[in-house]
Amino acid sequence: MNPRAIQRAIVRMMYDPAFVAAVHGTRPVPGLGEPERVLLRQVDRRAFTTDRFRRARAVQAIVDEYPASAAAIGLPAVEVFLSSREFHLVLAGRGAMALAFGTWLSDQAAGVGRVEAAMALLRRPEPLPAAPGRLRCASHLAPLTVPAGTLAWYEATLAWLGPVPLKTLAGAPPRPGLPRRSPVRKREANEHLLIERRPDGGMSLGTASEGLVRLLRHAVTARPRDAVIAEAITRGATPQEAPALLDGLLAEGLLENT
């Protein structure tokens, strides 16, 4: 018998009624042998429903960080996440729910989902490994390239949601008109955004030039200065301008020395 598997299953059963039914069913349940299932079946199923707001609190926490994404896919789809592998890993103690939701969300909410997933990451900064002699995008920034119209849709949706997004979304269908990438690659089909985590923990979001965003995206992974200079030249700087451009970005705090 596997005590850890039983513990993980009990936590999962508190959130996932379908998993409770599977444990009590006849088909195999991945990760659980018959001895574990026999023990779990001895627990009164009502014990897993004593807190009827447990799932609602999880949905509330997701909507708090992903309000526009929730508007894009709808609350029923958000609840589907609570039965996903990504959420089960969170219950097993692997990672934060907001980050797991961003992984699960993938492209379901297109650029808006990527914006809010990037914000979730910025809210949870982790120490980065030292890479002496290299440059990287500042850790309080997230450069993104998203479908054109994403920022306007995001801002309009936040205004529509109001101060209590969950209340607005309850019973509402998914919000239409989500900008998505064109199947034909066109430069004008994209917009380039820069998200900044402010010192007070808030987020600033605005457009930036394509060259700057692509340069910072290139430097999300720490790179030698010469490699960043080469990328700046690729993005339009002359060989004479590129070193001074990097020095300016370092002075402005957009790039940082590792």
Describe this entry's structure for a reader:
The chain has 258 residues and is mainly α. It folds into two domains: 3-49, no CATH class; 54-257, no CATH class. The protein has helices spanning 3-15, 17-23, 34-41, 54-65, 67-73, 75-80, 85-91, 97-105, 110-122, 150-161, 165-169, 210-218, 225-234, 242-252; strands at residues 134-137, 141-147, 190-197, 203-207, 223-224, 255-257. A hairpin with a 5-residue loop joins strand 3 (190-197) and strand 4. Helix 13 packs across helix 14 (242-252). The mean pLDDT is 89.
Radius of gyration: 23 Å
> Low-confidence runs (pLDDT<50, min 5 residues)?
none
Question: How many H/I helices?
Answer: 14
Following the backbone from N to C, one meets helices and strands in this order, namely: HHHHHHHHHEEHHEEHEHHE
- Strand order within the widest beta sheet: 5-1-6
Helix content: 40-55%
- The proportion of strand residues reads 5-15%
| Mean pLDDT value | 89
List how many beta strands DSSP finds. Answer: 6
Counting structural domains, the number is 2
Shape: elongated
Structural class: mainly alpha
Give a quick account of the main beta sheet: strands, pairing sense, barrel closure. Answer: 3 strands, antiparallel
Give the end-to-end Cα distance, rounded to a whole number of Å. Answer: 48 Å
How would you sum up this structure in a few lines?
This protein has helices at residues 3-15, 17-23, 34-41, 54-65, 67-73, 75-80, 85-91, 97-105, 110-122, 150-161, 165-169, 210-218, 225-234, 242-252, and strands spanning 134-137, 141-147, 190-197, 203-207, 223-224, 255-257.
